[in-house]
């Protein structure tokens, strides 16, 4: 009888070892770079909701573009025993450091919104948009609007490429927009593209575009694209402040975070539309992948892309409650 009890105990111990982690024993950390921005507010909410749905604990930290705080937060989360981390890096140059520390600690890592790489250039599992492809969508829509409004007949038309040059993901979006527009409008002179640097915020875009307008008083019509809605709405506001009519600008944003600001009043605007990506899905997808990897041993895919929806004044009513509620 004693031998049977010992054998039973050994079997039970073996079964316990073989059982994967339960969701309620899993803790996910989420690091984001700009927690007060609507995009990231929604993204973290989506991540938190998915964690609760899957029975996992969740902790989030906003690092406000601070590289040192990013590393400190990562180390703190690892020290506190998180089982997986999703991160939106403030600077892609941090990628190899972040990836190495997570790997050394044995903590699975998912990059969200901005792709990052190990030192050997192996990509960290990534959830977000295909930056170049969404830029192509922007350029195609801008070309469509340009043709619809017969801007080829206007005397002085320029493109303002509003660029965050520190962020490679942002530059991929801009390059995609430029490529698609010039392909669709082959007669447009590339020399008529003005490079406008900004820091990813609306205030910076307003200031930079205001300076650009002052330097180019002969231009009557402006086309503009950027990394995000802030860059495009900032340009639209600069046009308005400088006395241009909404019909003198065509801008298409990315992310949908400023759709309510642009279309909520019902007034015409040079911000013609945005490629909306539901950032809640980004956060939720990252958490789901991490929990399934930790709990079930499912391999983390290298890339998980989300697809945009085009929002304009014409269909804003279909999105207003979701985006502005």
From TrEMBL:
Where is this protein localized, as stated in its record?
A: Periplasm
The primary site where this protein sits is periplasm
Query: Keywords, A to Z?
Result: Signal
The Periplasmic binding protein domain covers 28-297
Superkingdom of the source species:
Bacteria
Q: Does the keyword Repeat apply?
A: no
Pfam hit, one:
Peripla_BP_4
Signal sequence, renumbered to the chain: 1-23
Similarity-based family: Belongs to the bacterial solute-binding protein 2 family.
**UniProt protein name:** L-arabinose-binding periplasmic protein
